[in-house]
Each structure stands twice: as C-alpha cells, then as structure tokens.
Amino acid sequence: MNVLEVNNLQKTYNIFEALKGISFVIGKGEILGFLGPNGAGKTTTIQILLQIITPDGGDVHIFGLDAFKNREDVLQRMNFTSAYVHLFGSLTVWENLKVFAMLYGVQGTKRITKLLKEFEAEDLKDKKAVTLSSGQLTRVMVIKALLNEPELLLLDEPTSSLDPDIAEKMREILKEIHRTRNISMLYTSHNMAEIEEMCSRVIFLSHGEIVANDTPKKLTRLIPNHKLRVLFDDDPKELPAFLKKHSIKGKISDRTLHVTAENEEIPNILGALFKAGYKIHDITIEEPDLEDVFLKIAREGSTEK
C-alpha cells in the first residue's frame, strides 16, 4: 500500500519551471530519500505536499485520498519537521507544544506528557524555547511533529547545523520512531552518508525532474570507477615512467599512488605493479558512494544549463 502517490506534479514561477511533471510514491513504512542540488525542486515539492503552495498541474494522493479535496483529513494524519523551523521563542517548551497540539486538534495534554517522557525531555518543559541548545531544540521539534501521531512524516534537513554527536542521536531517534511506529518518511539531506544509513530508496531531482530512483546500493552502480590507493615501502622514483608506459592516469604523493579506475581495471594495474617489482606496503580500494552519485548528477545538471 502506498501512503503517498505523486503523479505528474508541475509548478512554474513566472518562466522558471520548478517541477516538470515529477511522479513518485512512498510505501507504508518506507523511508524515501529525496535529494538534489539547491534549486532542484525539493522544497517546492514539500511545500505542495504540505499545501502551503498549489501546483500548476498533477495529482497528489495521500492515504488514498485526493490531498487537495481532503485537505483537513490528510494534514491531520501527517506532520513536518525541519532544522530551519523554529518554535515561539518567548514561550516555554510546554506552552509551544500546547499551541501546536491545539493546531493539530489533539485534545488534552496526555500526549505531550507521554512524548516528553519518552524523549527524556521532561526537564525542558519549563524552559523558554529561545534558551534551548540546538540538540534540545531538535528533540522538541521531533516531539512537536509526533503530537498528532502522524502516519507520514516529512523531514527537511533534520540534522542540518547539528553537532555530529547530536546529529547521530537524532538519527537514532528517527530510526526508533520508524521501527516502533512504522511511520512513512520523506527525508531530505545534503549528508549522503546519512541518507545511505536512513533510507531504503532514494530519488534524485535535477532541474525539476527525477533523474534517478532506486536503492542506495544500486544507485552507486551509476559510477563505474573505484578509487585505488597504493602505498609503497620506498619512494617509487620510476613510477611516473611506469604510469606513462601502461597508460595509467594517476597522482603520486608521499609514497602513495592515487588512481581512479573502473573496477575491472584494478587487478591489471596491481598485477603490473607487482610484476615490475614495486614493494607495496598497503592497498586501499574505495567503492563509489551516494556522494559520488550526487556530484555526478550535480555536474551533469550544471552542464545542461
């Protein structure tokens, strides 16, 4: 069952096409990574899903309902959190959560109390929001987003600007939420390692179009090259001539050879080095990751401009 179905979504600002007919789905309990360079259309898509702006064309069905014809029913069952959204600074955490609970139609304060305890944030309830640290604010924003027990959670850069240890804690919280509540999530981030950790499937946007849609593992296959590093026991003085003779493009620094090559070529390069008598101290082979895919798509998108 799909929690979200987007079909041929279009949005134009004057002459700028922000979305050029994108289509995608999110299944029940799925965490979908939603990636792309700045200006790719990510924020526009999220704003349409939250019904902050209206599309120029296309359909959005959430929980099987036409999102725009059933606005209240749909929004009551979903929520949103972002590193760029803030609380009311002059109000306490408790007062902020009460305001949002009323906006979401949540009756009473039992839900607030339960979530504060669950996220070990009871000591924050009487603090003014403006005094919270980034880590404390992150916890409270997640609590806010869970007040209405959403079935779909939109996460826009949820760990941006957080210290590494706080960002890790945030990811652990989100994984626990996903595991215990089976919530579907749309997850945007510029941290590719985070996306690989969190998401079972990833969509890449470029200039308002979906250019890739697959699992993180399969997407890395778009990059045929691996990074080979060879550390030698001694300074390989004759290595430049060796590279030229074997038509190998590489860089040499501090007794280390750096080569970017297709996976099938690496055994041949290593075999030639051993045959030539080079004394090798260590070999490292790095497979491509989502960061490489992101850079490839960003470069190709820039070239097409």
What class would the helix/strand composition place it in?
A: alpha/beta
Biggest beta sheet summary: 6 strands, mixed
Listing every helix as H and every strand as E from the N terminus to the C terminus, the arrangement reads EEEHEEHEHHHEHEHEEHEHEEHEH
- Helical residue percent? 25-40%
Mean pLDDT: 90
Low-confidence stretches: none
Question: How is the secondary structure organized here?
Answer:
Layout: E1 2-13, E2 16-27, E3 31-35, H1 42-49, E4 57-62, E5 65-66, H2 71-75, E6 78-82, H3 93-103, H4 110-118, H5 134-146, E7 152-156, H6 164-181, E8 184-188, H7 192-198, E9 201-206, E10 209-214, H8 216-219, E11 225-232, H9 239-245, E12 250-253, E13 256-262, H10 266-275, E14 280-286, H11 290-304
Parallel strand pairs: 3-8, 3-9, 6-7, 7-8
Antiparallel strand pairs: 1-2, 1-4, 4-5, 9-10, 11-13, 11-14, 12-13
Describe this structure in words.
- With 305 residues, this protein is α/β, with parallel strands linked by helices.
- The protein has 2 domains: 2-220, Rossmann fold (3-Layer(aba) Sandwich); 224-287, Alpha-Beta Plaits, CATH 3.30.70.980.
- It is 35% helix and 30% strand.
- The chain has 11 helices and 14 strands.
- It has helices spanning 42-49, 71-75, 93-103, 110-118, 134-146, 164-181, 192-198, 216-219, 239-245, 266-275, 290-304; strands at residues 2-13, 16-27, 31-35, 57-62, 65-66, 78-82, 152-156, 184-188, 201-206, 209-214, 225-232, 250-253, 256-262, 280-286.
- The strands form 3 sheets. The protein has a 6-stranded mixed sheet with strand order 6-7-8-3-9-10, with helices on both faces.
- Strand 7, helix 6 and strand 8 form a beta-alpha-beta unit.
- Helix 5 runs parallel beside helix 6 (164-181).
